[in-house]
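Protocol step 4 of 6: structure prediction from sequence.
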Amino acid sequence: MSSNLDSGQDSVRDKVREGYAEIARQGSWRRQQPAPGRCCCGSGLDAKGLAAQLGYKGEELACLPDGANLGVSCGNPTAIAALRAGEVVLDLGSGAGFDAFLAGPKVGQAGRVIGVDMTPEMLAKARHNAEVYRQRSGLDNVEFRLGEIEHLPLGDASVDVVISNCVLNLCPNKPQVWREVARVLKPGGRVAVSDLTLLRPLPEAVKQMGEALIGCVAGAILIDEYRRIVIAAGLVDVVVQPKPDYVRMMVEYADPLYVRIAEKLPSGQTPVDYITSVSVTGRAK
C-alpha cells in the first residue's frame, strides 16, 4: 500500500514539475492556456494585471527583474507577512523569484530570503533573475535552492517567516509539507501563505483535468481539512481566511482554465461555488 501511495505521489510531482518547467520556458502561466477564440491577454488579465489585482504595488512590480512574475499568484503573502529588517524568510515553491525578490528589500541586507523550488528550469530562471535583482537593488540577500518542499534543504529552527504563493495545493503530501514548515521555523516564527482550497468536493471530471492540476485546482483540498493539517503540524494561532475575490476575478475575466472548469460543473454552478483562495497565517510554538 505504501509503495503504491509513494508511486502515486511521485507521479503527481512529475506532472507538476513538467508543467512548471514548461511555464518557465514560456515565461508565463497566462501564455500556457489557449482557449478557442480567447486568451488571457485578450480578456485584459496578464501576469502584471493579475498581480495588480492581488494588491501588489506598481512601484514594487517595476523593480522586479524581467520574467520574475509568471502570473501564477493567487494572493499576496508578502503583504500579510509584515516582514522586518534582519529576518530570514523562506519562500516555498519560489518559481522565478517573484515574492522572494519583493521580500528581499523588506528584510534588508541584514536579512536573508531563501527560495526553494523542485523544478530545475525554474531554479535556473530565478538564479538568472537574482543577478538582475542584485544590480537593481544593491542587495545580495536572496538565494535559491533546488529541493522538494516536503523535504526542505534547511536546518531545524532556522527561519523567521515562511511564505508561499499558490504552491502547497500542488503537493501530494500536504501534511508532510506543513510538518517541514513547523520544523524549520524558529520558536515564535510565523507563516504567511496564499493558496487555493475547496468549499466543496470537485466533480471527478474536473479533478482529472491535467491543466487543472497545474492550475492549482485539482490538487486543492477542502478548507476545513487544510486547517486541520496546519494545526496537526504543531502550529498555533492558525487562521485560514477565505479570499473569494480571486476566483471571481478568474471567472469575470474568462480565464481559459476557469472557462473549461465551468463547462464540467453541474448546470447553474460556477467555479466560485467550489474554489476559493485563502490566506493562511499561524506561528510556531
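Step 5 (inspection) to follow. Confidence is low (pLDDT under 50) at residues 30-44.
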